[in-house]
# Entry
Amino acid sequence: MEILNIENPVFATYAIAASIMVLKIMGQGWMTVYRMLKSDSGLASPEDLQVGLINKNPRPEQLEVNDYVDRSRRMHRNDLENIPAFLAAGLLFVAAGPSLLLAQILMYGFVMARILHAVAYVTKQTHEVRATFYTIGSVAVMFMAVYVLVDAASA
# Structure
């Protein structure tokens, strides 16, 4: 288990990248809640229209789609569709023993691609811009998975 030790620089790279991505997923959820509270709209479920400490004056229109809230919700969903694959492939990649430089390029590249994807999404860039950053991150994860397959098949 020495390979999964913070003193292993490849694992430390993974630990940093994975921690940033976990914070991104969790932070996006909180951003959605913030936007719901700020706009007093964009609620997701009918039961959200019950009187409570926060929603003291529920109204049916609070269930209508609000792009300000829904944009954050879509960003969160996108993170949930992409980041778990990185977390799994990245850990397997560490176990395969890649070079530190390769690990840093792929893992930090994925993190940067996801951050730039979020910036593109929040600033309402075109699909092509978002897709470019998605593609960079996706290729990094797929490369790690293929590297692991080749390494495991040759063991």
